[in-house]
Amino acid sequence: MIDELILVRHGKAEDRGRTINDNHRTLTDQGIKEFQQILPGLVSLIGTGQEVRLWSSPLKRAVQTAAMISDSLGIGTVHEFKFIGDGNWKAFSRQVAGQRLPGCLIVIGHQPYLSEWSASLTGLYLPFKKGSAAGFRLKTHSPLQGDLLWFLQPKAFRRLDSKSAEILPPLLQS
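^ thats the sequence. predicted structure below, dont judge the formating
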């Protein structure tokens, strides 16, 4: 069963407009650049030696963000689920509960759903900016509940270096 859950909000995307369908909005060049700066910090917080799975909303900007994470971690498959794009908590929690192998699940999604999901998990409504992420240790799978391990906004990720990342995991284990 999944032990650790990481929720990630996609990078900066094209503005909403009448000419672009929301499902097809892509990351901007600046959004790609900024998320690439975040990646080393995010990757440093993912435990080593465990199975890592990557799930994404099917919306283009989330899929692009998931691809960057996948490339950084060497994960070949990104699974896309409509319930992530729609923010369907019941479908999401059922799918997580159905996972039989231990490990870490990284989910790339959208606002306000990520904040709502963090509130359902822990009681804490976290303000996910674009490029933010939160790590949780799951306590129960039915209902899906967990403890917040860490929550970082993009600026904090960019400041996270290898030395501070080495300090954080032992602190989180206690």
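The helical segments are 29-44, 60-73, 82-86, 89-97, 113-122, 154-159, 162-173.
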